[in-house]
Amino acid sequence: MSTRPTGADYRAELQKVGLSEKCIDGLMNVGGTAYVNFEKNYGPSPNFQDAIEAVCKMFMENKKFVKTQSEEDQKKYAIHLENQKKRQEEAYLID
């Protein structure tokens, strides 16, 4: 089992597919805001449903943000999502 990716790992993945720094910074901001607001929104003892809701909200915010970016960044972000999907599928097959 691999370790949890860091913010630097996520940034590197986004750079690897060629996203603009502006787009990367915006996506990092969405994730950072979700992280900071998690305890504020759900308290010190969130349940599983709270965590799922927070993750879904973050993905929806990412989607909204990416739609405001250039067509080129939107296409590259779609490639990034496909790459993530493939890695997840492979992880389930390997373990």
Describe the structure.
This protein is mainly alpha-helical and 95 residues long. It has one domain (18-93). 80% of the residues lie in helices and 0% in strands. Helix 2 (21-42) runs antiparallel to helix 3. The longest helix has 24 residues, at 71-94. Pfam families: DUF4473. InterPro entries: DUF4473 (IPR027913).
The number of domains: 1
**Could you tell me how far the N terminus lies from the C terminus, measured between alpha carbons in angstroms?**
8 Å
Task: Give the biggest sheet.
Answer: none
Determine the oligomeric state from the structure. Answer: single chain
Shape: globular
The whole-number mean of residue pLDDT values reads 92
Q: Briefly note the structural class of the backbone.
A: mainly alpha
Q: What is the share of helical residues?
A: over 70%
Q: Could you name the ranges where pLDDT drops below 50 across 5 or more consecutive residues?
A: none
Radius of gyration from the alpha-carbon trace, in angstroms: 15 Å
Give the number of helices.
Answer: 4
**Structure summary, number of beta strands:** 0
Beta-strand fraction estimate: under 5%
Order of helices and strands: HHHH
Pfam families: DUF4473
InterPro entries: DUF4473
